């Protein structure tokens, strides 16, 4: 973001005078100068949008929200404008009735409703450059809808005048989001689609659906963020068809972040940290404690050059890398990740064939994923790590190095049947039902490298540690198993045989 010149400051002041107001001595413009009440009751939408327009007319500037609560419907960003939320300043999503309409999208059938529309948001911008939202204040989506799908699975929609996202950006460049907090952000706290050169730094998000969604974006840095999202994903990369074409999400780094689904909404952001206690039915149906880092599900354009480093994940569903809509997912590095109390597969790689997209969409590819320096301490989790392609479309080149997985154990030896393939199904960690492995379930894989991987269980587990089905080109070195791990430690199933492998196991018990 370019520093403002003296000429810009003078132009901003002139624009403010045109509205009957004056910029302050620093050239910043306070929304109160344009009539905003900041009392949490009066609607301040018009005043805020006038302030933004004045800043844009001056060639760019900073629109400041001083202490107060500003009830608004849709705030329309403009190029060159920064919104600055001072401490004790809150932008409050007003009740439904005045948000901009969800714009038409001829490709809406290929992604969820929330991904197809942008203008029906508390703060939105399209086709912009050099914009920012900064400062230690709060964006509270109290009046936003979570946009939950109907029980019958029909496409969801909003009532006229309703909003469902806190921040939505489309086809923008050079964007910064830094230092503020989001409470109850609706369907998405932050949705960026087709946004390049995006920095998201030091956000605290405590929300009722997705936290941060990055869709069809390039050159993105997400760092030092804390996200609590009990009912959906915390940080999620996607590559949908919302732009009317395939576009990869690429060159993305996620570093030094904390994600969880484990706290009551509102208690994470105010540091009370009250644990979210979901029922067994909620947990099993994924209605709580989700909060993970994920690539997918929308995956028409694929993912390339993704790094997840030095992150902590607690009381959530772990890492999920999925491509099921024809895109190629490749060159992904995970390094230095700490997991605590993961509630299903700590690592989930899925190549599938949902193929939600235009006619002619074909199965994509998943290749080149390296996980190193990952430790998962999850004594309540019964699910193994999962790497699963589909027949004729194997996942390729997966490496797990210096990985330690502590699971609950307690599984039974006698597993009847073969887990379903479900190639067209929505990809989820529990999609195969009970699995016959306690540590790693791998199916339809070409090139699997495990080095210095430790599998441990709290309770004795009678299942094989590793279950391989249609896996070739594997290399195992210096593996560590639970004491008393049963034979066969590795179960192999291939086209020629369905019997336990009699080859020596490159394993050490400990």
Please explain how this structure is put together:
- By secondary structure, this protein is mostly beta strands.
- The protein has a single domain (27-148, 158-509), classed as Single-stranded right-handed beta-helix, Pectin lyase-like (Pectate Lyase C-like).
- Helices cover 7% and strands 43% of the residues.
- Helix 1 packs across helix 2 (45-57).
- The longest helix is centred in the first third of the chain and has 13 residues, at 6-18.
- The N and C termini lie far apart (54 Å).
- Residues 12-22, 150-154 and 495-510 have low confidence and may be disordered.
Task: Put the structure in a nutshell.
This protein has about 500 residues and is mostly beta strands. The protein has a single domain, classed as Single-stranded right-handed beta-helix, Pectin lyase-like (Pectate Lyase C-like, 3 Solenoid), CATH 2.160.20. Helix 1 packs across helix 2.
Shape: elongated
Radius of gyration: 24 Å
The CATH homology group name:
Single-stranded right-handed beta-helix, Pectin lyase-like
What's the total number of strands?
Answer: 36
Mean pLDDT value: 90
